[in-house]
Structures are given as C-alpha cells and as structure tokens.
Design brief:
Elements lengths: L1 H13 L5 H17 L3 H12 L4 H14 L2 H16 L5 H4 L2 H16 L4 E3 L2 E2 L13 H21 L1 E2 H15 L8 H18 L9 H15 L7 H16 L5 H20 L1 H17 L4 H16 L3 H14 L4 H17 L16 H12 L5 H17 L4 H10 L14 H9 L4 H18 L5 H10 L5 H17 L3 H10 L9 H39 L4 H8 L4 H8 L5 H13 L5 H20 L13 H8 L9 H13 L9 H6 L3 H24 L6 H17 L4 H18 L3 H37 L4 H36 L9 H8 L18 H4 L1 H17 L1 H17 L3 H17 L1 H5 L2 H5 L7 H16 L9 H5 L8 H18 L3 H13 L12 H9 L7 H16 L3 H20 L8 H14 L13 H9 L4 H36 L5 H12 L6 H4 L4 H33 L13 H6 L3 H5 L1 H23 L21 H16 L10
Parallel strand pairs: 1-3
Antiparallel strand pairs: 1-2
Helix pairs in contact: 1-2, 1-3, 2-5, 4-5, 4-7, 5-7, 5-9, 7-10, 9-11, 10-11, 10-12, 12-13, 12-14, 13-14, 14-15, 15-17, 16-17, 16-18, 17-18, 17-19, 18-19, 19-22, 19-54, 21-23, 22-24, 23-24, 23-25, 24-25, 24-26, 25-28, 26-29, 26-30, 30-31, 31-34, 32-34, 34-36, 35-36, 36-37, 36-38, 37-38, ...
Length: 1335
C-alpha cells in the first residue's frame, strides 16, 4: 500500500491531468478501507498529502475535474472514488463536501447515460452502432464490415464503462445521502432529484440488452426515498421537487420509465404520505399538476387520464371525492381542461366506490356522482364539437357500465330525466339534447349521440321519444357511411327491444330503404336486420299461433272476448302491426328488393312460407269460430304480400290446396264489380265502406295471384290448365279493378310459359290469348264511343230542362257500366303490351288517339264530332287511362314514340289534372332511358314540373330526374342544376329532405365542382336578374325564369335564397370557398362598381345585397385555426391529423389575407364611393359586410385600408360601436338575471348585496372581458342609483320643475332666455345613466 500511496501523492503533486491509473490506485485504497474498516492506510495518505504542503481539498478538486472533463469511463470511476472518499472513515465531510463537486458527480452520471453505446456489459460491447445494417446489398460495404466492427469495438472499450460501476455509484450515493444533508444546498437537491428521475428514461435505450434495469430503477427509488427524509429539508418541498421531476415520466407513452414513475408514486410516496402530512399534500396535488401538463392530442391525453387514475385510486375515499370536485370545477375552464374533465369523469365513476350513493344514508342527491353526471350532461352541449362528442361517448359508456343492478338503473333513469322522479334538472330534457346532437353539424357528435341512444335503449327498455326516433331515422340517410351505420344500429336496437307501432313504422320507413345504398356493407346489414327483426319474428308468430290455437279455442268457450282481442292474444304483441306496416306503399318496394336479394342468396328458409300460411289459416279459423260470414273475412294485412314475395324462392313450401281454397274464396266475393259514377255515389253513400273493403280484397287477390304464378311450376297439369282458363275468362269480362288486371295478365303468362313444352309453344300461346283480349277490348271501346255519341246526338233535340232531368239521367245510368268496362279495357291493353310488345295494335291506336285528342280544338278525328263535351270532362278516368296506355305503346314502339312525343309534352304543359301530369312525368322518365336523344330537347319542359302546384307531381319529378342524373341519362347542364336548387326551399318537407340528401350526399361525391361552378350564376337566376347574360329575355322565357326565381327583398324570400346559398357553400372545399369569394367579388361587386350591374333595378339591388350577405356569412369564411386547441381537438375527434390541419389552416389564412389586400378591399372602396354618390341604401350592407370581413384583422386594418383612410376610420368606429353595443346588451342581460334572483328592498338593507358583491357573482367569462365588465359596472351603478332615487322618493315620481320652490331668475334678453330654456328642456328629455358611446 505504501507504493500505491506514493504514486497517488506524486500524481497529485505533479498537477497533471488525472489519469485512470491514479483513480484506480485511489479506488483500491478506498475499497480496502471500506471493506476492512481499517483506516491506517488512508490516514497515511492524508499525512503524506499534508507533508507535501497539499491540502485535502486539492484531492477532491482533482477528482471533481476528472468527473467533469474526462471520458465516460474516467468520469464514472471518478464518481465512484468521490463517493467512496466521502464514505471513508474519519473523512471531514462537513468541510470537504462542496456543491460544485456534487454537481460534477451528477453531470458525470447524466453524461454516461446519454450515450448508450458506451455501456459495457462484462467486458463486451452491448450495442455497436452501424454493426448491422438491414437491406444493404453493397458488396464493398460487406468487405469492410469486419474492419469497421473491430475499430468500433476498440473505440468503445477505450471510453466505455461497465454497468456494475454505475450500480455501485448509485448504491454509494444512497449511503452518502445519509451523511450529507442537502437541505443546506437546494441546488444540489434539485439537481439530484432531476438526475435520478432522468436515469430510467435514458436507461431505456439499452434496457433490452441489460438485465439490471430493474435493479437500476430500484436504486433510483431508494435514492429518491432518501431525499424525502426530513434531514434534507422540508419534506413538502422535497416531495414537490420529486413529483415535478417524475411528471414527464408519467406522461410518457407506454414504457418502462412510465411504469417506474407511476410505481414510485403509488407504491412508495402514497405510503410515506400516511406518516407525513406534507408529503401527502404534495401527492394529492400531483393529479392536478398532471392535469395542467397533460397534452392535447388524443392518445397522449388518454395516457395522462390513465396515469391520473392510477394515482387517484391509491388515495383515501375522501381525497378521491375531493379530486372529483376539482374535476367538476375543471369542466368550467378552458377547452383543454373541459376535454380532460370529460375524459376523467367516466373513469372516476367506475373506479371510485359508490358513485351513485346507493350505500349512503344521504342518498344520491348529495353524492359526488350526481355532480359529475351533471357536468357530463352539460358538456354534451359544449361549444366545442370535440368536447361534445367525447361527452356523449363517455356518457354512453357510463350508462352501460352503471346499469348493472335495478337500483342503479332506477337512479340513472332519474338522472337522465326519465320517469316521474327526476333527480337533476338541466336545460332541456335528455330527449331534446339527443335530438339536437343527432342533427349536429359535426359527424363525430352525431355518431356519439347515436351510440348514446343505443345505450339508453337498453336502460329504458326502448321507451324513447317519438321525435327522437324520427331524428334517428333521418340519420339513417346521413351522407357519411359511419353515421348511417350508427343510426341503423341505434334504431334497430330500439326495434329489437320495444316493438310498438311507432317504433315499427319508423324502422320500416328508415332501414329497409338502405338496401339501395351505395355501400355494400350497409346493404348486407340491412338484409341481416330484416331477416332477424321481421322475417324471424313473423315466422315465430306463425309457429306460436298454430301451437296455441287449440288452447285459445278452449278459452273462448269460457270467456266471451271480442274478435280483435282474441287476435291480439293469438299473436305476439306488435306482429300484426309489423305485417300491416310492411305493405305500406313507401315500404313495400324496399321489402320486395330485400326479399329478392335474400332469395337469390338462398337465405330464405321454407319455414317462413309455412308460418305465413299458418297465420292466414289461423286467422280464418278464428273468424269462423266467432260465427262470422266467411265472405267478409280478410287475412291479416301484409300476410299475403309477404307470402307472395318469399314464394318466388320457396315454391315447394307453399301448399297448392291452400292456394286453391283461398282463390275460390276470394274469387267468389264480388262486392263492387263496377266503378261508380258520381251520380251513383250521391244516391248510395253507404257503398263507400263496401268499396274500400273491396279494394283490400282486390289487393289480397293480386298478391294471391302473384303467389300462384310463383308456385305454378309445382302445380299439377290439370289444375294449372283450369286456372289459366279461369284467368282468361275473368280478363275477358273487363270488370276487375285495375290493380288486379296486371296480376292476372302476369299470372296467365307465367302459367303458359311454365306449362308449355318449349319456348316457341309458350310464345304462341301467349300471342293467341293476347290477340283475343285485344280484339275484345277494341270492341268494348267501340261500343262505348258509339254509345256516348248516340246519347249526345239524342240529347241535342231536347230542351235544357228536359235534357238535365230526364234523358241525361237515363243516359248516365245506362253508360256507367259501359264506361267502367271501357276503363278496364284500356288498362288491360296497356298490361298486354308490357307482356307482349309485338302484338298487333293497328285497330287500337286510332281509338286511343281519338280519346286523348277529344279535348283538343284542332283534332282531326270526327269520331266524336257529335259529342257535346270532350271525354276529358265527361270521363276523366278513361281519358287518363288512355294516355297511360298510349305511353306504354310508345315505350314499346320507337316510331310511335317519335310521332307522339310532342303530344305528351303539350299535354304535360296544358293539363289541369295532377294525376295525368304525374303519369306523363313517369312516362317521360322511361322515354329518357329508352330514347335519350328524343327527350333531351324537352328537358326544360319536364323540369317545369318541379314547380308544379301539386306536391305529388313535384316530388315524383324530383325523384325521377335525380335517378336519371345519377345514371347519366341526363347531364347537369343548362338550367337543370339551377332549377333543382328551388327544391331546397320547397313548401313540402319531404321534398326538402330529398333535396338536402341529393345535394349533401349524391352531388358532393358525383359532381363536387358543380356548386362552385354554378354559384355566381345561381345568385343572378334566383333574383331573376339577367345582367350576367347581357341581354333581356323574351316574354315567354321571362315567365319561365320568373317561375324558377325567388324575387323580392322581403324577409321570407331572402331567407330562402340564403338557405340555398349556404347549402351550396357547405359542399365546397376550402380552396373552392376561397375561389368563390373571389368570383363573387369580381363578377358582382366589380360589375356593380363598373356600372355593368344596374343598381336602379330592384333585381340588381337584390343581387348586390345577396352578395354582401354571402361574403359576410360564416359558411364562406375559412377557418384560420390560429393556434386554437379546441379546433385541434375537433380534428382529432374526427380522426384527422391536427398538425396538418393547423398547417393547412395557416396557409389558407395567409391566402385569405393576400386576397383581401390585393383584390377585395380595392373593389369595396370603389363600390363604396359609387354608392355614396348615388345615396344608395346599400351602403349600410356594404359597411356591415366589410366590418365582418375585417373583424379578424383588427390589428392589420392600417395595412389593408391604406388606400382610403376615411373608410378605415369609419370601419374602426363601426367595430368599436358594435362591440360596445354588444357588451351593453350582454351586461344588461346579466344584471337583469341577477336582479331577478336578488330582492332589492333598500340600499340600507344589510341583506342587500352591494355592486361589488354582485360583480363577484358574474361568470368568469364575463369578468375576463374588460368591455363587458365595464358595461356591467355601469349597469349596476345605474340600477343602484335608480334604487336610491326610488327609496328617497318613497316610490313617488320626481315632481316637475315648475312645482319646486326655486329662486326666480331675472329676465335676460330674449335670445339668452330662449337658449336657457332650450338647455333646461334638453336636460328634461335626457335619460339618466345612458352611455355616451353613441354620441
């Protein structure tokens, strides 16, 4: 040891840089001393140093310099030597410990962990940079890889250190803390805490190849625990430093360092807090600190919430409740805190015990969970869309989690405002809230609201508000696929649990139609839901009714119930209503398509057909058991319809005897074979109910016929032949209802084709009976036309009185039957043309032409020359059917279509019959598919039906043209798009909904630039202004353009036009909005300033005013996203990249500012001068528009309006006036609200709060706005002064000046006296406490 001491002292005396040999010799000496507890050698070292005139501090300074300036291995070795020296016996720690040396130690530890490639493990390199490069195929690099690896190993071994040395350093650091009290050195304490907390973060980089990471974290925990002892100063301050340093670790993404930070707080500091109140206080404040440091992005924010809850779970219950109250207060703060509060509340409610107060004596009304739920419901109406969406999502999650027991379900119902006992009260019921959120402008909010609807369905067992169900039904047609899926799921959940008539109707009118959706997954979901919720229910009802029928008959003998009651008992609740609603005319087409799709996929089971037959047979048996006449029996509505659809794919499951029995039953009943004339209806009003009943029977016969045709392939030959003969015989009588004719024709054709030996034989059979029916139909028409001609000729020789009373009545009575047959014959001809387009119609067409031209003054036919009145008036049904049949004929024959198409267009324009116009529109749509080129020139005539007086015609035209546009049979060109715009403000709500869906969903995807390209033209067209065309329209075109305009400056017309404008603007991308803004300025404002737009004309003024309103609307305004955390939260909530969105927003904001300076402002300045010269009333609109445009650029107005200083001053004044007026209005409302809640009795009343007390009750939002706060102060002062005056006057009014005892003034000159009187009069008229802002 003497030699070692000599070398140490010699090296120290030489004052050369410290070498590793010097440190190793000193470490050997210190290790020997610490291990043997023999300090003789160390004392000899101290003596030797003193003999060389060296102080002991020179040794510590040398070690400190080695820790600072040496390589990593020397720094770690120096740190180990320094700590060993402090631990050595008899070392003067109090005098030799210096903060500089300790900070050098901490820097050495940090530097060692910053480069993980210098860490050695048992003499080998743990990780070598660049040793292995994947994907490189360079041969030259492969040759040199061995040399590079050897060089790196040598380099790392020279400067590296072993992990065990670092572990030894930390162990000895812990022991040193027992000797050195860092309370005297706060910088050292702070540095130590920061360094130790950073070690796990830096050590993670090499922890995968380092098995001692756990031991390293354990040593860090022990060091931190040592720091928290009372010897190192105030424990609260030390705990705050530790927690502050651990917070970044806790907020890291999932890693080992985060686990270390959370584990230390939960497992060690919380336990220390139980014995130290100061540490406990610091730990209780940690969740609040993490709240302030929590990031705004979704994933890191979720980890922060998870970390907060890990800490809060370790608290006592009282502390947990206190933190819950803090979260409630957070919900009233900034957007990021409100969002974090919304995320924390559901986790708190699930993690902390008894959130609903079920185990508390005070009950739920005093529980902390009530306050949290109130906050969550309030945040569902937050101003920020991202917070609204999160609040709704978390509320849905909470409802699902807390609905386990009956007690909790009952409490939740009260909280949500359902039932008689409402626990909390908030603005609007939950149903109103959900209705608003389901129609929210943000997709994420709508989706979250629909999820909440699903959860509430389970809570309430489906008992939701009817208006809310309609809103969910509307969301099933949302433009976004995700919203449609969520709405389908929510509505189906209600339908699955709560089968009522209202729910059934809404589901069937909303979900089945989505079988036509563009998204394949939605079509499949629609099929699955229809199979589960409709077909399976009906099938189960059929099985149940057949099995319980005998027991029900037994009960009938004991209880005399009504038939309706027994039917309800026989079938499960709601099934009959479901069947009835299926055959609704708006639902039936979609049901047909779903059944066809399921049948093609072979997903229809024979059981459904069998059970439908059981339902029909059971209903008939129950009817007969009540001693009812079988002729008046009808199957449950919808049963025959559904059977007719499924039987096409399940023919073997339908029993022929069943069909034969019911066909005979339905065929025997003939309540009204003839259509009644108006005269007969007047005579026999009692037949109305019978006729309506016969229509239901006719519908059942139609569905039965369709079922028979579907299963005809399974029929025996002889019954099939008899059935075909029966069908033909009934058709030849021409006495059926029109709904039955087509069914008979189709069934007859099916029987012929399926029973013929080959296709040629089937075609010949069909052609044979078609010609036979056409011949007889022609004879019926000839008889009718001859009959009415003879009647009219005979009536010409009678006097008017005789003609009206005698002959006319007899003629009407004799022709009513023939007219009914003629109508059926005409309809039959049309049905025959559909099934056999090659039939010979030479004898039919002239007759039909005679009928459809009977009302024309220039008709060439003399067939009805003797008719007193045209058939259009005497036989309107025949007239309409003739047009319909002629349309079917033209659809089959292109030459006839080319000849008669102008006749159809003429009738469409002139006809006063809505049914005929509707039929012609349908025909023209079919022609557009078959003969596109022929119809294209008449498209402007067809679109005039969009403004028809009949709602049905308008809706039919809109639907048909929309389908043609989607299939590209019609192009969006010319005036077509502009005429469609008026459907957005149609008087019919259904048409408005269809138009919203067309423009918001279909057009946005199919023609995204259409709204942008036609926007400016739409402004002119809607105002009926032709300034953009440069020419005036002719009188004929003027009436047509006026039909498709919304002229006028009244509020109603302007609001309609603005609705159209905003709808178009919502379809545009941000770059198109910017371009539209420029186009409106260039083509309207610039045109007006250049006198190209006549401002004396009313339409020109309307165009200019609309342009001002559009430019100042929020829809055309592009969000700048200037650092708005709330907008970033919205982007994240909708799954977007908030960073990219903010960058794009800044770029667009710069483009908007550039456009304002270069283009918009000069136009506004020139236009303002023009309007001022003409003293136009539009100056106010211009200034208001400019004020709104520039309110976001208040600090840049000097640069924007450098060309017109006067305009700049006016705008600044207008903005200040607007803000002051708004502040006064806000203040007045706030003061009025406080006055209603406080009783003003007397200023001297001690219970009366003064103005400062009232100001303290103002919301923080109002206090933060200086202008509003100032206005509130003025309003409070005015209210106080008025109260004082009322108290002084004891409620009496102030007496007039003439009644007061005042000294009389000497008279002056007349001018002075009059001036004084004016002053007094002005003071009388002046109202008290008015601000002078407006003066």
């Amino acid at each position: 040891m003497d030699e070692t001491i000599t070398r140490i002292v010699t090296d120290l005396e030489s004052q050369a840089p410290i070498s590793s040999s010097f440190l190793k010799d000193l470490q050997v000496l210190l290790d020997y001393t610490l291990n043997t507890n023999d300090s003789i050698d160390l004392e000899n070292l101290y003596t030797e140093i003193s003999s060389r005139n060296l102080s002991l501090s020179s040794l510590t300074n040398a070690i400190s310099s080695a820790m600072d300036s040496g390589p990593t291995n020397i720094s770690i070795l120096g740190s180990k030597v320094y700590l060993s020296l402090l631990l050595s016996p008899n070392f003067p720690v109090f005098t030799q410990f210096t903060p500089m040396a300790f900070l050098s130690l901490l820097r050495a530890i940090r530097r060692a962990f910053k480069n993980p490639y210098e860490v050695l493990r048992e003499g080998t390199v743990s990780r070598i940079r660049g040793a292995k490069k994947k994907g490189r195929k360079n041969v030259g690099q492969k040759k040199n890889s061995g040399e590079s690896r050897d060089f790196l190993e040598n380099e790392v071994e020279e400067g590296g250190f072993e992990v065990r040395d670092m572990l030894c350093v930390l162990e000895r650091l812990e022991m040193v803390l027992g000797l050195v009290h860092l309370g005297r050195f706060p910088d050292c304490l702070k540095g130590l805490v920061q360094a130790v907390c950073d070690i796990p973060v830096m050590a993670v980089d090499f922890s995968q190849n380092l098995g001692s990471f756990g031991r390293l974290c354990d040593l860090c925990s022990r060091v931190l625990s040592e720091v928290l002892k009372a010897e190192h100063g105030n424990q609260g301050d030390s705990a705050a430093e530790v927690l502050k340093a651990l917070t970044p670790l806790i907020l890291l993404n999932k890693s080992q360092a985060r686990s270390f930070g959370l584990g230390y707080v939960v497992n060690r500091m919380v336990k220390m807090g139980r014995s130290s109140g100061e540490i406990k206080k610091a730990v209780l404040n940690l969740p609040k600190h993490i709240v302030r440091k929590a990031p705004e992005k979704a994933e890191p924010r979720g980890l922060a919430v998870e970390s907060i809850m890990e800490v809060v779970k370790a608290f006592d219950f009282e502390d947990q409740v206190e933190f819950a109250d803090y979260v409630v207060k957070m919900s009233q703060g900034k957007a990021q805190f409100r969002l974090l509060a919304v995320d924390l509340i559901p986790v708190l409610m699930v993690s902390v015990r008894d959130p609903l107060g079920l185990d508390s004596d005070d009950g739920f009304k005093s529980s902390w969970g009530l306050r949290c739920l109130e906050v969550l419901i309030q945040r569902c109406s937050d101003i920020t869309a991202g917070i609204r969406a999160r609040a709704l999502t978390n509320l849905a999650q909470l409802v699902g989690s807390l609905s386990g027991s009956e007690r909790s379900r009952a409490v939740l119902k009260g909280v949500m405002g359902f039932g008689n006992d409402r626990t909390i009260s908030f603005e609007g019921a939950i149903n109103d809230l959900l209705r608003r959120r389901c129609m929210d402008e943000k997709a994420a909010v709508r989706k979250a609201a629909l999820v909440l609807v699903s959860k509430l369905t389970n809570l309430l067992c489906g008992g939701l508000d009817e208006e809310l169900l309609k809103t969910v039904g509307i969301d099933c047609s949302d433009p976004l696929v995700s919203i449609r899926k969520a709405a389908i799921s929510a509505l189906s959940e209600v339908f699955r649990i709560h089968l009522t008539d209202t729910v059934t109707k809404e589901w069937l009118h909303s979900v089945p139609r989505l079988i036509n959706d563009n998204e394949t997954s939605i079509q499949e979901e629609c099929e699955n839901l229809f199979l589960e919720l409709v077909l399976d229910r009906v099938s189960n009802a059929g099985s149940t009714s057949s099995s319980h029928y005998e027991s029900l008959l037994h009960d009938l003998n004991e209880k005399k119930n009504s038939l309706d009651m027994n039917i309800e008992l026989l079938y499960p609740e709601g099934v009959l209503g479901l069947l009835k609603e299926i055959c609704d005319r708006e639902v039936a087409p979609w049901v047909k398509k779903i059944c066809t799709s399921l049948g093609k996929k072979k997903r229809l089971r024979p059981k459904i057909a069998i059970d439908l037959q059981n339902i029909i047979k059971t209903s008939e048996s129950l009817w007969l058991n009540h001693s009812k006449q079988v002729e008046k029996w009808m199957a449950p509505p919808g049963a025959w319809f559904l059977l007719s659809e499924v039987s096409a794919f399940l023919p073997k499951a339908v029993n022929w005897e069943f069909l034969h029995h019911h066909w005979q039953l339905l065929d025997k009943y003939k309540p009204v074979h003839e259509l009644q004339s108006p005269l007969e209806q007047d005579v026999n009003e009692g037949m109305v109910d019978i006729e309506s009943n016969s229509l239901a029977w006719a519908g059942d016969r139609v569905f039965l016929l369709q079922t028979i045709s579907n299963v005809s392939v399974e029929l025996p030959p002889e019954p099939a032949a008899d059935l075909a003969h029966n069908f033909l015989k009934r058709l030849e009588e021409f006495n059926m209802h029109s709904t039955e004719v087509s069914a008979h024709v189709k069934a007859l054709k099916t029987l012929c084709k399926r029973k013929a030996l080959n296709s040629e034989e089937a075609d010949s059979l069909v052609m044979k009976w078609v010609h036979q029916l056409l011949s007889k139909a022609s004879q019926v028409l000839d008889m009718y036309l001859s009959k009415i001609t003879d009647v009219n000729k005979d009536s010409g020789f009678l006097t008017p009185q005789t003609r009206a009373s005698e002959k006319g009545t007899k003629a009407a009575a004799s022709t009513v039957t023939l007219e009914s047959h003629a109508i059926t014959a005409v309809y039959t001809i049309g049905s025959l043309i559909i099934v056999c387009s090659s039939a010979d119609l030479k004898a039919i067409i002239p007759v039909l032409y005679t009928i459809i031209t009977s009302g024309s003054s220039d008709r060439k036919s003399s067939r009805l020359a003797g008719a007193a009145l045209p058939l259009k008036q005497t036989a309107p049904s025949l007239y309409i059917q003739a047009w319909l049949t002629m349309g079917k004929i033209c659809l089959a024959d292109g030459k006839l279509a080319k000849r008669y198409l102008p006749l159809f267009v003429q009738e469409l324009e002139k006809s006063d019959c809505a049914a005929l116009r509707n039929n012609i529109v349908v025909m023209m749509a079919d022609y557009c598919v078959r003969y596109t080129a022929l119809v294209d020139c008449y498209m402007s005539k067809i679109t005039k039906c969009l403004r028809d007086t009949c709602e049905l015609v308008r809706r039919q035209t809109f639907i048909l043209l929309s389908r043609l546009l989607q299939r590209d049979y019609v192009k969006w060109r010319g005036v077509l798009f502009l005429r469609f715009l008026l459907c957005l403000v149609d008087d019919s709500e259904k048409i408005r909904q269809l138009a919203d869906f067309l423009f918001g969903n279909i057009l946005k995807a199919k023609a995204p630039l259409l709204a942008y390209n036609s926007f400016v033209e739409a402004i002119f067209v809607l105002n009926d202004c032709n300034a953009h065309t440069g020419r005036s329209n002719a009188q004929s075109l003027r009436n047509e353009t006026r039909l498709f305009s919304i002229r006028g400056n009244d509020e109603n017309s302007r609001s309609k036009r603005m609705h159209i404008y905003t709808t178009l603007l919502k379809q545009m991308a941000p770059e198109h909005l910017l371009a539209t803004f420029a186009k409106v300025c260039a083509e309207i404002l610039a045109a007006a300033s250049d006198s190209m737009l006549c401002l004396e004309d009313v339409t020109g003024q309307s165009v200019l005013q609309d342009a001002f309103i559009i430019l100042s609307s929020k829809e055309i305004k592009i969000q700048s996203n200037r650092g708005s955390s709330s907008e970033a939260a919205e982007v994240e909530e909708e799954g977007g990249d908030s960073g990219g969105a903010l960058a794009k927003g800044r770029a667009i904001s710069q483009a908007v500012r550039k456009s304002l300076i270069q283009n918009t402002i000069p136009i506004f300045i020139e236009l303002k001068r023009l309007l001022e010269s003409k003293n136009s009333p539009l100056i106010g609109s211009l200034m208001e528009c400019l004020r709104i445009l520039l309110k976001d650029y208040k600090n840049e107005i000097d640069d924007l309006l450098v060309a017109d200083r006067q305009l700049q001053k006016e705008l600044v004044y207008d903005m200040q006036k607007f803000e002051s007026t708004k502040a006064r209005s806000t203040a007045a409302n706030a003061v009025a609200t406080m006055q209603r809640s406080e009783a003003y009795h007397s200023p001297a009343d001690p219970k009366l709060p003064n103005s400062s007390a009232l100001k303290s009750k103002l919301p923080e939002k109002l206090k933060s706005d200086s202008k509003v706060a100032s206005a509130v102060a003025d309003a409070l002062a005015a209210a106080t002064a008025r109260s004082v005056l009322r108290e002084v006057n004891k409620g009496a009014c102030t007496p007039p000046l003439s009644a007061m005892g005042v000294p009389k003034l000497k008279s002056c000159t007349r001018e002075t006296a009059s001036r004084g009187g004016d002053v007094i009069e002005s003071l009388r008229r002046r109202q008290s406490f008015d601000s002078d802002d407006e003066n």
